[in-house]
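Morning!

This is the sequence you dropped in the shared folder:
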Amino acid sequence: MKLAGKIALVTGAGRGIGKGCAIELAKAGADLVLNERPGSPDVEITAEEIRSLGRKCEVVEANVFSREGCEELVATAIAKVSRIDILISNPAFSRRGSFLEYSPELFEQTILGTLTSGYHMSQLVSREMVKQGDGGKIVFISSVHGEMPISGSFAYGAAKAGLNHMMRSIAVELSEYGINVNAIEPGWIDTPGEHVAFSEETIEAEGRKLPFRRLGRSDEIGKAATFLSSPDADYVTGTVLPVDGLFRFRHCLPEKTPQPKDVQ
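The structure's back. Tokens below.
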């Protein structure tokens, strides 16, 4: 229970990686404020799971793709729970497409939903942490796309690369206040969204091609976020932690060639 007495705000917490982070933080003793966009059918289910663990949990619906939505979220969270010790910043927007055909509007939406929203949330929450006067932990959910120039994902990759750099700069500036700022880079994670984008057969087949023979799980990202939010990571800041099962290096593995039979 290393997070006992702490209050964590998790954005995009209704399902997938955000839910995985929220559940693992609760298991470590934190109370939660969960955010999802207005009308989300998932966030109350996650909240009930957290309450069943014996933790307190508040839900605040707000659109974190806008400054106004982020301001509403932080103000409402502070009114409900009085302080925020941990922020898991998990907003993202991704649409694949050819660079030559990608529309300016879609590019701007990707940057807004993935990078700019992270700026809004971290700035507003860090201001509260500075006022509280006893440090804090900020964890951005980035992506291996921030390092890998994957075809069709140039906009999302650029946004995540920018997020990584912004995280390091924020970590430098907030170090004087004892606020740790880090990022996690998930690889290919088995989330509900992946089951919308791909068939079950494709997910199973592609998972077998990865070094660990499967996709990652949301709780594995949550465990990493819990570590970075805990006292165990008090001297860790400005760091990008890949949690990808070697997804970045999957093509670096030795080729398995058939061996000839012994000849008598």
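Headline: The chain has one domain: 7-243.

More detail when I'm at my desk.
O.
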